[in-house]
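Sample pair:
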Amino acid sequence: MKLKKKSKQIRQINISSDTTSLASKISSEKRIISENTPFDIIEAYKAARTNIMFSLNHEKGCKKVVISSATSGEGKSTTCINLAKTFAEIGVRVLVLDADLRAPRVHKYLNFSNEKGLSNILAGFDKLDDCLVHTSQANLDCLTSGAIPPNPVELISSDAMNNLFAELEERYDYIFIDTPPLNIVTEGLLLTKICNGIILVTRQKYTMYKMVERAINSLKFANAKILGFILNDAEDDKYMYGVYKSRGRKRNRYTRYGYYSYSHTYALKSRESK
């Protein structure tokens, strides 16, 4: 039974609004595609968009795509946002959903408040319309992670999550979901059961082959549909259109869980870069 549509009272927030420090704002703007992004980078995302659309062409209704990685620091959050922006450009209704309830990043890249979001809805504290953010780009909305909860796995696997998706499917054509790395916690695997597919993000001179293999084995065990891979910071242009220079290794946000960053090279054939 379809849920009755409600009139949306969502906030109007400009992506470029100055709500953080200047240094943070400049860093975020460099990672997120815009009209100033080089042509080859834009074309890389358009190529990925075309491939995703063909991969999900037989799926009816709202398409829900998980964007994840084997470990942290591979660019999954920025890739998730940039894919969503690229899809919104063709006139379809798109939502970026930050389901990383442990170390959320989407709100920082888009310069949004994270006071209310996914966790608040799942815990029953707030309604969807109170948490949705309408970006300055047409057709593109965002639902941030919200307050960091003590029980992220329970929230992601709850009936409230299924009910939320049922409501979101009435509003959007595509939902791109940022999740924690697959080899660290289980939320990404849980979400593949209620989504149409997953894209794994990797990073040249950073991602280890054995870590990708471990992630793939977990996805196979969960019977998840792998739509493909995206390689960030690629230096070999025979695999993609454009290249961003590596900005240096950053501190692993998940080290408190006992995991560490990796810098070994594993070149995956891919159609784009970060």
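The longest helix spans residues 39-55.
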